[in-house]
Write a structure and sequence with these properties.
It contains 18 helices and 27 strands. By secondary structure, the chain is α+β, with helices and mostly antiparallel strands.
């Protein structure tokens, strides 16, 4: 058995070896591997995160919000860090609108208390800087105007938050901004703590987009289209309203039916070309006048409403019919007024295919309009060497080529703008987050489509259409003259024309004497006996203009509506045999009953009426209108019979 001294020596040697091993390992960790382990410890304690940038807002021309990004917060509470748990519990409960007892119970029983919310910035304002309370922010996109103009605005992708459609996609680079970067600290539970001193790069918010859209006109257009598709049982339709002097698109509405469901988020006014029918007769007339192939006295025989058009030398023919049969001869002005297919087909024989093609190209057909919008269609316009013997007649009647509603409105805008075609636009301004204007739209002329004299003659023709005996009498306003052209075209689908299915349309310029707006209104496949453009789209246009005049915020320049226009040397009068429609000057809002004078007056009873009829009634009484719901009107606020001041807002509640 070993001696005690030997055992003690062995034990001391072992302890020494152990101490040396510890010291050696410590030296290895600190001196040799110190940098490695320091980096690993730092990595577990810190995390590099991307700070999202606030996406820029989208506003209408008057600054009304259409799409905005707001920051929402999740609130977390660390009870052991609170300075005064009782007082802080009351502050938290008041800010988050929670029962005080619940917050006190959470703080007393939990080590970490999450309140996911989400809560907006105002709700958590009193919690900022409160020790032990942590705010985790996240941006969310909102559309305050609801479905208004959503086909134009578009939306975001669910995963990345980048633009997926519409303006959100087209101007995503401007709206998105630049993300920042920061380093956050983490505790043993993985909770994050933001340290201002560790912010490496501030996020840069996106830029704000101010559209040319006027929310008042947009609402009027969407409501009119909704009512019309229901009334005429149409498959859908489009409305475009454009400022003729700037090319700014003031309203864009679309509606289509998917089974029994109404779809409003498709931008068919940009993407779906259609054969314009008789609304395009004006462009062949412009070519005839430009090339001096016709004057005010030239006439063609109208064939009493039916003409066998020869298509080759072997006796083949096609029959061209007129809905409005004309006895005897007719001038070019009469052909436009009565929408004679036969007369326009005969007049078109005075043009070569190239001349007719170039006239359509000059008005912008066959190429994209150039709007800041993804997937804009160019329409369809074949090169003239591909035209057959019937093509010139077809084009003169508005067939054998296709246009988008925006292209059609822009072309009528050129006629209103003394023959100069402007690029349509949706973007009025781009501003930085501080409000500085970085871009402002200026009118962008594309080309001169026709001379000022020819444009004035075409406007005179359009006034005949809405005059006595014209195809659009139902579009005329009693106060300011409108000029326009109806269209009713067989629908082309599945490689052939569909009998009994039509596209009804009306293209207009308003006012006729001092134009401000160009409008294109289209209904797809209206059912029943009223499927003509003159009985569907034309009265829709009149009703929209009446509402726009009654609205106190629409983008109508009322300074230009104070009196008759002064005659100009370049605007010849309409041809003598077809007098233009007379003018009547009136004050705003629409002259009606006593409502047009300031003072208090009773709110009319509009219960049971359609939204459009109710809005018209209230506007004419001098009230402004807000709409809640859709369908028939059930009640108003203030209620019918109560008195309200001139210009007061009356809210319509509909179901």
């Amino acid at each position: 058995m070993a001696k005690p001294a030997a055992r003690i020596g062995l034990l001391q040697a072992m302890l020494l070896l152990g101490a040396l091993a510890v010291v050696g390992r410590a030296g290895q960790l600190q001196l040799v591997e110190g940098a490695k382990w320091r980096a690993e410890a730092e990595q577990s304690r810190k995390e590099r995160v991307v700070l999202p940038a606030r996406r820029g807002g989208i506003y209408d021309r008057n600054g009304d919000a259409l799409a905005v990004t707001q920051e929402y917060f999740e609130v977390g509470v660390a009870p052991n860090e609170l300075r005064s748990p009782v007082r802080d519990a009351r502050t938290i409960a008041k800010a988050l609108k929670l029962p005080v007892a619940r917050v006190q119970r959470d703080i007393a029983t939990k080590k970490w208390v999450p309140y996911p919310g989400p809560y907006n910035g105002l709700e958590v304002q009193d919690l900022r800087g409160l020790r032990g309370v942590y705010l985790d922010g996240e941006y969310q996109r909102h559309y305050p105007a609801g479905p208004l103009a959503r086909a134009v605005i578009g939306g975001l992708t669910a995963d990345s938050g980048r633009g997926a459609s519409g303006i959100e996609l087209a101007l995503d680079a401007e709206l998105h901004g630049a993300p920042g970067e920061a380093v956050v600290l983490k505790d043993t539970r993985g909770r994050r703590y933001v340290s201002p001193s560790r912010l490496e790069r501030e996020p840069v918010p996106g830029r704000d987009i101010y559209l040319t859209i006027d929310a008042e006109l947009q609402e009027i257009a969407e409501r009119a289209l909704e009512d019309a598709t229901r009334e005429f049982e149409a498959r859908g339709g489009d409305i475009v309203i454009l400022d003729v002097h700037t090319g700014e698109l003031l309203a864009l509405a679309s509606r289509s039916r998917d089974g029994d469901r109404s779809v409003t988020n498709r931008a068919t006014f940009f993407t779906d070309p259609f054969e314009p029918g008789s609304t395009a007769k004006l462009f062949t007339a412009g070519a005839l006048l430009t090339h001096a192939r016709v004057d005010s006295t030239d006439e063609v025989f109208a064939e009493n409403g039916a003409w066998r058009f020869p298509t080759n030398s072997r006796g083949a023919f096609r029959t061209i019919n007129d809905v409005h049969k004309i006895q005897g001869n007719v001038t070019l002005a009469g052909a436009i007024k009565y929408s004679s297919n036969i007369a326009m087909a005969k007049f078109s024989e005075r043009l070569t295919p190239t001349e007719q093609f170039e006239a359509l190209r000059a008005f912008g057909f066959g190429s994209p309009a150039g709007v800041e919008f993804p997937s804009e269609a160019r329409g369809e316009l074949r090169m003239p060497h591909l035209w057959d013997s019937y093509a010139k007649a077809s084009v003169a009647m508005g067939y054998a080529f296709a246009v988008t509603p925006v292209q059609l409105a822009a072309a009528y805008g050129a006629i209103a703008n003394d023959g100069v075609l402007l690029t349509p636009t949706l973007v009025r301004e781009i501003r930085d987050p501080g409000g500085k204007v970085l871009y402002q739209h200026r009118p962008e002329p594309v080309r001169r489509a026709v001379s000022p004299a020819v444009a004035a003659r075409l406007r005179a023709y359009l006034q005949l259409v809405v005059g006595d005996g014209g195809t659009a009498e139902s579009a005329q306003l009693a106060n300011y003259p409108i000029a326009g052209k109806t269209g009713t075209a067989l629908r082309y689908d599945g490689g052939r024309y569909q009998d009994g299915h039509y596209t009804a349309s009306f293209a207009a310029i308003w006012p006729a004497d001092q134009p401000q707006l160009a409008m294109a209104v289209k209904l797809d496949d209206p059912r029943g006996s009223r499927y003509y453009g003159g009985t569907t789209a034309a009265p829709m246009t009149r009703a929209m203009l009446q509402e726009a005049l009654a609205s106190r915020r629409s983008a109508i320049d009322r300074r230009q509506l104070v009196g008759p226009a002064e005659p100009t040397e370049t605007a010849p009068a309409p041809e003598p045999e077809e007098p233009a429609v007379s003018r009547v000057v009136f004050g705003l809002p629409l002259q009606a009953d006593t409502a047009a004078r300031p003072g208090r007056r009773p709110v009319p009873n509009v219960a049971g009426n359609s939204l459009r009829k109710a809005a018209n009634t209230l506007h004419r009484r001098g009230f402004r209108v807000a709409v809640r719901g859709s369908g028939l009107v059930r009640r108003t606020t203030p209620v019918a019979g109560d008195s309200a001041g001139f210009g007061a807002i009356v809210t319509i509640w509909a179901e």
